Amino acid sequence: MYASFRSIGAYVPENVLTNADLEKMVDTSDEWIVQRTGIHERRIASDEETTSDMAVKAAKLAIERSGISKEEIDLIVCATISPDYFNMPSTAAIIGDKLDIRNVAAFDISAACTGFIYVLNIAKAFIESGMKKNVLIIGAEKMSAITDFTDRTTCILFGDGAGAAIISATDKKEDAIIDVHMSADGGYADFLMTPNGGTGNPHMSEVGGEAGCFIKMRGNETFKLAVRTLTSDVEKILKKNNITSEDIKFFVPHQANYRIIHAVGKALDMNNDKVVLTVGKYGNTSGASIPMAINDIYESGRLKHGDIMLLDAFGGGLTWGSALVPFAGK
Ligand code: COA
User: Fold this and answer.
1) Assigned CATH class of 2-172
2) Nearest CA to 177 among 162, 166, 186?
3) pLDDT value for 302
4) 155 is catalytic
5) What is the pLDDT of residues 130-167, one digit of tens each?
6) Is a pLDDT exceeding 90 seen at residue 213?
């Protein structure tokens, strides 16, 4: 059996936070934000809206578009670093409850912005081993809940949203997910982290109390490492599978920063019209950004059955990964 990418869905909250809004909150400017990141606005969930609420809306669309019934789903895996509850229960279990999918394994994984590539590979492995047939994978984030809106170096970057996909078993080789790479190097853990609240610093003394539960980032170093690592990882996956940039219909990178995307796209000799960009309107939605971007090309009618997508991502951990995925939906 092969694993195929059968359907996609996404959801974004209604509330828009523009660069002009941020100008009133911190010492920044629309010009600086657009020039350094390409971000114009991002969506922010309401106080009542949780990560699982957004995930459920994305998942319902993915299930409906897959043509399978929810009773056929036999595994739920959610990538998130902004779960409904930090220790337990898992957001995946809550999503299962809200979708009324019961007695099915459900768990979260923590790989930050690379999360969707990790859950994609997990689904692929479960299906290829014959253990599962239809896996609901989700990337969902309420980044606004872990962002310090007094810190101009991070609060301009992040936004909220969710994306979901159904990965199904198939015997059609042409629909099979071609390859997924995932990797990590914890030696760079302090490039991107939320220092307080875990067992590493349970008493919240390290970075002044609650503020230490928000994202801290060494932005400039992360930027340089991201460009280097992503370029070499993508070159490797293309070479290993004997695929060239010309075979790729859509390059769907993690939407962190326009300049990172542009630098990697250029190094890969990727035509601009193949590069999917949503960072301008949604900012960095971490594990949700890739499925949200895939949903964008799906809903605009550009993504067709058989189109090969090249995915890549980089994030806290540090983690990174890439994937070659033909779209197997309608
Ligand atoms: N508005 C105005 N000025 C700002 C600012 C803001 N929002 N944020 C930082 N600055 C200032 C800094 O204080 C610094 O000022 P100084 O020179 O007086 O010290 C100056 O701008 C340059 O800061 P620097 O951090 O070197 O800028 P940069 O070009 O690296 O851009 C990022 C900052 C965050 C946009 C960029 O580093 C980045 O995108 N990094 C990757 C982040 C990322 O993608 N993380 C997630 C990975 S998944």
Assistant:
1) alpha beta
2) 166
3) 97
4) no
5) 999 999 999 999 999 999 999 999 999 999 999 999 99
6) no
Which residues does a 6 A CB cutoff place in the pocket of ligand 1? Answer: 28, 32, 36-37, 113, 152-153, 156, 217, 219-220, 222-223, 256-257, 284, 314-315
For the record, the structure tokens of 74 come out as 């036999």
Look at the block and give the residue holding tokens 């801290």.
216
From 196, 257, 284, 295, active-site residue: 284
User: Among residues 181, 254, 257, 295, which one is catalytic?
Assistant: 254
pTM of the predicted model over 0.90: yes
Catalytic site includes residue 305 = no
- Best mutation site among 40, 82, 110, 153 for ligand 1 pocket (most ligand atoms within 8 Å of CB): 153
75: part of which helix (H) or strand (E)? strand 75-79
Compute the average pLDDT of residues 290-310: 98
What distance in angstroms lies between residue 143's CA and the mean position of ligand 1's atoms?
18
215-240 pLDDT tens trace: 999 989 999 899 989 999 999 999 99
Are 177 and 326 contacting, i.e. CB atoms less than 8 angstroms apart?
yes
The answer to whether the CB of 209 falls within 8 A of the CB of 196 is yes
> Does 179-326 match 2-172 at the fold level?
yes
Q: Say how many C-beta atoms besides its own lie within 10 A of residue 226's C-beta.
A: 27
In the residue annotation, 284 being an active-site residue is answered as: yes
The confidence score (pLDDT) of residue 145 equals 96
pLDDT of residue 202 exceeding 90: no
Give, using CA atoms, the residue closest to atom 30 of ligand 1. Answer: 220
Q: What are the boundaries of each domain within the chain? A: 2-172, 179-326
Q: Is 163 helix (H, G, I), strand (E, B) or coil?
A: strand
Query: What residue's CA is closest to ligand 1, atom 12?
Result: 153
Question: What is the position in ligand 1's atom list of the atom closest to the CA of 315?
Answer: 48
Residue range 83-103, pLDDT digits in tens: 999 889 999 999 999 999 999
Higher per-residue pLDDT: 39 or 198:
39
**In angstroms, how far is the first alpha carbon of the chain from the final one?**
20
Residue whose CA lies nearest to ligand 1 atom number 22: 220
CATH code at 179-326: 3.40.47.10
